[in-house]
Amino acid sequence: MTPARKAPRTGSRAFAATWWGQAWVDALEASTLDAGRLSRGRTYARKGMVGPVTVTPGVLRAEVE
Known about the structure:
Blueprint: H1 19-31, H2 35-46, E1 50-56, E2 59-64
Antiparallel strand pairs: 1-2
């Protein structure tokens, strides 16, 4: 099993903490059609307002408080 590695920080507020987390965020950013929605989602996540995330082809869902 490969040990977790920290993702390189690209700024003072890097969102992902691991290399695979950063790859996931990069893929999300590359495929988003609504940058505003992605930005709001980040804000909600940082505030702890996002529940479990479900990913299916073409859809990402999470319950938000």
